[in-house]
Amino acid sequence: MSKTLQQYQPEPCPHSGGGVHAWMLSTANRAARAGVSQVDAEQDILRAMTRPPSPASEVSSAVAKAYREHVGISPTYQPKPKPKPLPKTREHFIQRGREIGGSEADWFHRSPYYLPEAEPGPEDALAVLRTLWPSYGQLFVGDRYGRRVEPVRDIMARIEAGATVPPHIIPNPLSGGEHFTKDGKPSTRCDDAVASFWYAVAEMDDMSREAQLEFWAGFTSAPIAALVDSAGKSIHAWLRVDCSTREAWAQDVRQGLFGRVLIPLGCDASCQNESRLSRMPGHYRAEKQAWQKLLYLNPEAAR
Amino acid sequence: MNKALEQMEAEVAEAMNTTPEGIQKELWQISQTPKMTATERQTAYCDAVLGWLHLRGAFYHLTARPDFEGGLYFDRERRLLLRIRSDSFLAWLADALGMNKAGRDFQFIQSAVEVESLTERSTGIEPSTYWAGRPGAVYLSSGPGHVVRVTAEAVAVVDNGTDGVLFPAEAVLPPWVLTEPANPFEACTLFREMSTTAPHGKLLFQLWALSLPTEQQTKPPLVTTGTVGSGKTRAIVGLFELFGLLPRVNAVTKGGEGDFWTELDGGGLVCFDNADTRIDWLPDALAAAATGGCQSKRKLYSDSERVTLRARAWVAVTSANPAFAADAGLSDRLLVVRLNRRTGSTAEAALSAEIVAARDAGLSWVCHTLHRALADAEAVPGGLNARHPDFAALAVRLGRAMGREAEAVAALRAAEADKSLFNLENDTVGVVVLEAMRGGESFNGTAAELMERLKTADPTLEGHLSARRLGKRLSKLWPHLVAVLGARQEPGHGGSIRYSLKPPSNGCYGGFETAFSGKSPARENIGTFAQTPFETHQTHQQAEDCLPFEVGPP
After folding, report:
1. pLDDT band at B519 (very low <50, low <70, confident <90, very high)
2. Mutate to test the interface with B, among A88, A216, A257 (most CBs of B within 10 A)
3. Nearest-CA distance from A156 to chain B in Å?
């Protein structure tokens, strides 16, 4: 049941020349806040006006403006404050990591899963595929605009057959079917396509590579399943989160892990979504002339 | 995930509390609490800050002086022990809390912190200075945060505060690095070319220098004596430079006894330079300091409060004319290194630069030598130093650690013999007795007969020294006469005492060299004899002259 004009605007429209346009704006805003439909609000205002609209679009423009500004915003809305950065705490972790050993060699020796000692290459890709997912798990491993989601065993078979290791991976298993993105486009690797919420990807790009390695070494409770050198300026940490549902991801990973822990410590806030792309170890990044390397692998993610 | 997330949040919270970010967050939350009065908010601030300070460190106070001035805070994260009232602590706290030091809230917090340092939640300690010794371990500070711990097992860099050994930030050696050890006494020209009169002098100096970090309860004062240009003071300054200490080289003044004890209470190493003039208080004060004594006095501007200044520093005294050595009791506690005038010249700055360059390796060598000495459980020969047996035992072990045990033992024996000679040389009567006996003939007779022989050696004694006073003087010097001249006494006819003295042997430095070298200041001392009254600060002529009987040695 729609509200009447008197319910959301107790003031009558003043006489022509007495502030009609201001009353019109005020009424449009009140209507938007009261949840009255845009069409009803426009008609209510036209009926109550003491002069004809001038120009003819005067009312519709005012109502559209009011509704544009009030969509989804409650009168008491306050934007959520950004987490306060904790640079000194991060420095503390880096310092601690430096003391306990956070170099690439330290991580290599710390890895519970034996890492191939030879030059980085497809073996790195096979190592993560073999240990972190079941062979039937559906994964996206491809380039930035790829769409192909396939079982782990198929990906491994291709790599073992000599195919080039693709540059990207979504560490969370996908459903394999098409889902819709927030923009309404169909996709096989959007957030809605994620079937299991096992890993969160964390990276930071405002620190040196060495400092990132020391940071993760010093942050001893972080459940790191794998550390991947992106061959650029960042190290990607795959954190084992094991969320059971999308809601649990939103609460534990978005709000908890990223909101309260990782973002204040300087991790990239854009990594919070479940279908986050990461770098696939074993890929040679030609533009950087460097390998994307697997530095640490621990399926149990317990240190 | 929940459990892992909780662990991560807990770790972040813990890490935050080791940085100012933890307390700043807490203070901000308090500031946002509605409906608090100013007093309630300030109390909450104080509680939060004290809790945070307890998390990242500990409160201490001086055991000897439990007052607000002596309140201390040890910051475990920075490994710094700071006085709570010091500017550096207050500046750090204000910065950490994000508050202005002049603000009312900070004043409340500062007051609460001071009070906390004197509660039962604070520990009474005696902070170490520069170095510290504990049973089986020696600690050398290295900057405000680190300590090199030397034990029988290892030499290792540890944090300040390890094993409860705390160095305040203002009493630490400048940072140095444990590295490949190199003997600084060989590497540095100043020490290598030290011109000692007796060969054992150089090793004795090294053994004493190596003992500095051990912080023994009784510390033998080192006397470097020699003519002008012999490098007496420079050798001690070299030690200051080796350890990185600011040279504390003080002149000795008539009314300077208070300053003397203040310097000693500061710990480390202190040098009293050019102690050539007769200073009444110096022998007694030095003797007390050598045996771990103290000076207790009224606190300034108070009626009943006391201040106790203890002998925490090692003392070196330089002198060309060591009149203080006439005190038989003090001489017995000294280590004497006699120096010759140096030949050749090296720029002071070059000598210092060489020591500074060799400091890391030199201190590493000191630590490794101490480490081997601490690991040495073999027995050491006794009787090497009657007044400082602990020092002698350590010195022998240090000698072993250097591969020079026999030389160390010989050096200590020579030093023990030399201190008696040193006393006689610098005593107005002793030096004449020594000179008279150097004729080569033994003496056996009464004090009156000895008096006649002394007059032959020094005619100026005529009319200035009675036989009775001579007997009294001999009794004071007796232990040293026994050591140098093989003195004996026996009852004679009519209650008098007969003295028996032998000429000094050539082995007065323990067999290293003739004691009475041509460059010894003893001869110059003889020259001053005529101008010097026949008394020392310990001898009251009038009182002795009134004695109705002759006093013999005990």
Report:
1. very low
2. A88
3. 29
Where residue B278 falls among pLDDT bands split at 50, 70, 90? confident
CA distance linking residue B515 with residue B501, whole number of Å: 17
List the single best residue of A92, A224, A247, A257 to mutate versus B (max B Cβ within 10 A).
A92
- Say how many CA atoms lie within 13 Å of B415 toward its Cβ: 35
Quick one: pLDDT band at residue A70, thresholds 50, 70, 90? confident
Q: Closest chain A residue to B22 measured between Cα atoms? A: A89
Rounded to an integer, the average pLDDT of B467-486 is: 87
- State the average pLDDT over residues A125-130: 93
Residues of B with CB under 8 A from a CB of A: 1-2, 4-5, 7-12, 15-16, 18-22, 25
Burial (Cβ within 10 Å: 0-12, 13-18, ≥19) of residue B399:
buried
Of A88, A220, A252, the CB nearest to B11: A220
pLDDT digits (tens, 9 = 90+) for B6-20: 999 999 998 998 899
Tokens of B8: 């991560």
3-class DSSP assignment, residue A281: coil
pLDDT at residue B529 in the model: 39
Question: What is the structure's pLDDT at B178?
Answer: 94
> 0.80 exceeded by the pTM?
no
Mean pLDDT of B237-255: 93
Rg from Cα positions in chain B: 29
Which of B5, B10, B19 is nearest residue A89 as measured by Cβ atoms? B19
Query: Does the distance separating the beta carbons of A252 and B1 come in below 8 Å?
Result: yes
Contact B1 A86 (CB under 8 A): no
Cβ–Cβ gap B1/A257 under 8 Å: yes
**pLDDT at residue A184, as a whole number:** 81
Closest among B349, B322, B348 to B336, alpha carbons compared = B322
Are the C-beta atoms of residues B205 and B318 closer than 8 Å to each other?
no
Gap between the terminal Cα atoms of chain B: 88
Q: Which residues are registered as beta bridge partners of B314?
A: B269
Q: Does residue B479 surpass a pLDDT of 80?
A: yes
| Confidence at residue B554, expressed as pLDDT on a 0 to 100 scale | 37
* Strand locations in B153-237 (E): 155-159, 222-226
Q: B222 with B196: CB under 8 angstroms? A: no
Q: Which amino acid is at B365?
A: W
- Phi-psi bin for A200: left (phi > 0), alpha (psi -120 to 50), beta? beta
Q: Does A84 sit within 8 Å of B1, measured CB to CB?
A: no
The share of chain B scoring above pLDDT 90, in percent, equals 55
3-state secondary structure of A25: helix
Q: Are A163 and A121 contacting, i.e. CB atoms less than 8 angstroms apart?
A: no
Q: How far A243 CA sits from the closest chain B CA (Å)? A: 6
Candidate from A93, A223, A264 with C-beta closest to B4: A223
Q: Higher model confidence: residue A254 or residue B534?
A: A254
Contact A89 B7 (CB under 8 A): no
Q: CA A187 to CA A180: how far, in whole Å? A: 6
Nearest to B363 by CA among B191, B185, B208: B185
Average pLDDT over every residue of B24-41: 92
Q: In chain A, what are the helix, strand and coil shares in percent, each to the nearest 5?
A: 40, 15, 45
The dihedral through the CA atoms of B272, B274, B277, B278 has a sign that is: positive
Of B8, B11, B21, the CB nearest to A88: B21
Chain B residues with CB under 8 Å of A257 CB are 1, 5, 8
Give CA separation, A159 vs A122, A124, A280, in Å: 7, 11, 12
Inspect the interface and report whether the beta carbons of B16 and A221 lie closer than 8 Å: no
Would you call A260 and B10 a contact, using CB atoms and an 8 Å cutoff?
no
Ramachandran assignment for A236, one of left (phi > 0), alpha (psi -120 to 50 degrees), beta (any other): beta
